[in-house]
Amino acid sequence: xxxxxxxxxxxxxxxxxxxxxxxxxxxxxxxxxxxxxxxxxxxxxxxxxxxxxxxxxxxxxxxxxxxxxxxxxxxxxxxxxxxxxxxxxxxxxxxxxxxxxxxxxxxxxxxxxxxxxxxxxxxxxxxxxxxxxxxxxxxxxxxxxxxxxxxxxxxxxxxxxxxxxxxxxxxxxxxxxxxxxxxxxxxxxxxxxxxxxxxxxxxxxxxxxxxxxxxxxxxxxxxxxxxxxxxxxxxxxxxxxxxxxxxxxx
Length: 250
Known about the structure:
Layout (H helix, E strand, L loop, with lengths): L1 H9 L2 E5 L4 H12 L3 E6 L3 H13 L3 E6 L7 H13 L4 E4 L14 H25 L5 E5 L3 H4 L5 H20 L6 E5 L7 H4 L4 H10 L8 H12 L9 E2 L7
Parallel strand pairs: 1-2, 1-4, 2-3, 4-5, 5-6, 6-7
Helix pairs in contact: 2-10, 5-7
């Protein structure tokens, strides 16, 4: 019994928003393989979230799923409550939830712009507030930006603007948490083979974007999960940074 109490006390816990699919899911599974208990946050697809939980538990890990709009100031504290009640606390936040609509600035639908603002910017504020208040010492906050900021691709103005805000928040929060032993960084993936990236793109466009990197391929969710694992674990001297995981495009 004493040995079990030590195990419970030393277990590290991660919340992964957007954890039911794509980069979020790969990150959740990688952290579970690293020994984290994982809370998978999802916006609406219960079946995908339960599938992610099942994949982790079948591999010997611990995971639960919780539905919450990341921009909801009531639902997000409840997400953190669940993590604390189920696993005893929160050590790492991986904030991978996001939405993307592509259109030239002159044509962007303002409702789509508002939706991106709500999820990508307000959501980062709301989730970040809880993480800043509730993460244990030795923890890490990992936000998600995008390498599209430096690529400046046509059609990405609205999405890139939201990710520019994420980078600004990340760098400031790292300094606001002085003395807390909590790192705050952002990962900025390049073109990565996720449903969100591939949606609406023809084969020629995908092939052209894949060829941009010196490695001549798209990234995979697992490639990005490797970076998340690094920032969540051994990278204690990396703080206030944006890591551009893009195969060398920029």
